[in-house]
Task: structure prediction
Amino acid sequence: MLAHLAVYGCQQNQADGDRLRGMLLELGYTMTDDCAQADLVVLVTCAVRKHAETRLLGHLGTYLYGGKPGRKVVLCGCMAQREDVRELLRTRYKQVALSFGPADLRRFPEYLNRVMTEGGRHIIASPDTAPIDEDLPVSRIITPELNRANVTIMTGCDNYCAYCVVPYVRGRERSRAPEAVLAEVRGLAEDGVEEIWLLGQNVNSYKPDFPDLLRACAAFDGARPAGYTIRFMTSHPRDAGRRLFDAMASSPRISPNLHLPVQSGSTAVLNAMNRGYTREDYIEKIRLARETVPGLVLTSDVIVGFPGETEQDFEDTLTLLEEVRFAKLFTFQYSPREGTPAAALPGALPPDTMKKRFTRLLKTQKRIEEESGAHG
Ligand code: SAH
Ligand code: SF4
Result:
């Protein structure tokens, strides 16, 4: 039996994909890149912005029609945990045989077995407090060109930023045991993996303690003479501070790359977003990080056009970019997600204002990157 896996969205989804591949191989499937040959198609989907959902639903037809007779399609990832999507699957995309959310990945073999033995359709709402996936089989694609591996250290999110769907689809925040994470990292280092990424929606709230975990992850010998590098994503500015920066500076094996999504440069918007820090807090953290971590490389995310964002709020974001000078910036136009507090807020921006601000944001960042490139 041949299985085809298609992963959309973030690095967390890539990591979930590695575990789904691990489980599929354990179940006796052979993986294929050729969807047309597959007996089983597994889609790992993203729901963070409307655009991602629309695109996936646009592609879905190509997965559902044609291909091998009797081919089964499984939809998982964040979209699968949304009630409106489940409704669409029930009423419109009736060829999807199985769907379940990202919070109980470990039950995939059991769910798949149900599909194969009972037939029919299984559209499952995953419990959001399912025990964390501790020791699932993982099958990573590691090549000499892309010698890197993702290690999930926690799942879910309890932050409830006003715009964000993640807490509703990935469930409550749960951390893996440090011993399990360390065993996995040690194994990868000993296998000669060059870059090991520790992943979570907010790694700073890893329990019991993220800076300690980071230091412990950097303490192995590894197989490569050049050693290995530990990177991590994502940090929340509210929870990142001196202990994290000290840990980053403590070992050459810990990458000086810090992705610290600011979202906005306006304290009023940050408050409305429920981010838990001010513009000044953020700038002060960056000052401390730069002072503490030699060669710090700082990247960030910004959302343009959160409901009620005034021209002055937006200007504040531009001046923050000038002040902080990120090496790279991921920019998003605000996308209302049903069920989040922000979706019910008044003050939606007219589309042309949104576009104009977005263009100005891109231009500002491009100039900053060019200037930094020119001046080293
Ligand atoms: N846990 C991470 C990543 C969350 S999703 C974090 O806290 O940073 C990745 C990025 O998508 C976010 O940082 C945010 O900039 C963006 N994003 C999330 N929801 C969004 C929405 N509804 N509209 C536009 N961008 C959004
Ligand atoms: Fe979403 Fe905020 Fe959690 Fe990040 S920290 S996943 S932006 S709710």
Q: What stands out?
A: The mean pLDDT is 96. The chain is about 40% helix and 15% strand. The CA atoms of residues 89 and 96 lie 7 Å apart. Residues 157, 159-161, 164, 166-167, 201-202, 236 surround iron/sulfur cluster (ligand 2) (CB under 6 Å).
